[in-house]
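The authors assume throughout that readers already know how a fold can be written as discrete tokens. A single example would do more here than another paragraph of explanation. An entry of this sort, consisting of the sequence and the corresponding backbone structure tokens, reads as follows:
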Amino acid sequence: VLDVACSTGIFARMAAHVVGPVGKVVGIDPSRAAIEAARRIDVTSIVEWRNWEGSRLPFEDETFDVVVCQHALHRFDDPEAVLADMRRVLAPGGRLGIMTWGPIEENPAFAAELDAIIKAGLDQSGVVEVLLDAFAYHRIEDLRALVQRAGFTDVSCRTVRMLAALPGVAQWVLVYPSLPPLSRAWRDCSQQTRIQFLSRATELLRPFEHDGVLRVQASSRLVVARAPFARPPIARAPAG
């Protein structure tokens, strides 16, 4: 299993427990900080963690049975090219799994963060644009077409909704500033701006807290596809 743009490796570690000792899971990410964090968390070293520099995946053709990318497709400048490279490293008939966020309106934790960013005046730092990029691939028909253009077959796409159980509001609002895209702007903003952000985020999320647990809906799109069993022919220029 290959987990592309694995971040700190939540999915890769879960996959490693599924495949067991006879299988292999590789987590790869362009961020060195993310890979270092993944290695620290994975104290048993059940996943092979690798930093990824450049556009091409550093693996031979037909290396993996499964390739996944969870909530990270928006990080790539050319997602179709990355998907085509995922197809290259998949064995014939191998499976692809892509998960992207649904629209921000269906993800109230992120919507609260966006509202608080704007109310606190942090939107001048480019944070809003980066945050909204995470929701760029929420249209099912666009996702299906993107994966098909990358050469996959048996493409299906559906909405996955869950009720996320998070720490209490007082604790959770402090998580926002520690994560991208807010973390960089947070370091440079004033104390008054921070107070305004935390106050507004707390106000918006408080109705979702019950018995000390923040319960909010999370909506994603799940794409499942298969690498073709036969390689598509290579286009060649006509003779002469």
In short: The longest strand covers residues 153-166. The mean pLDDT is 91. The longest helix spans residues 191-205. Strands lie at 2-4, 26-29, 48-51, 64-70, 90-101, 153-166, 209-210, 213-226.
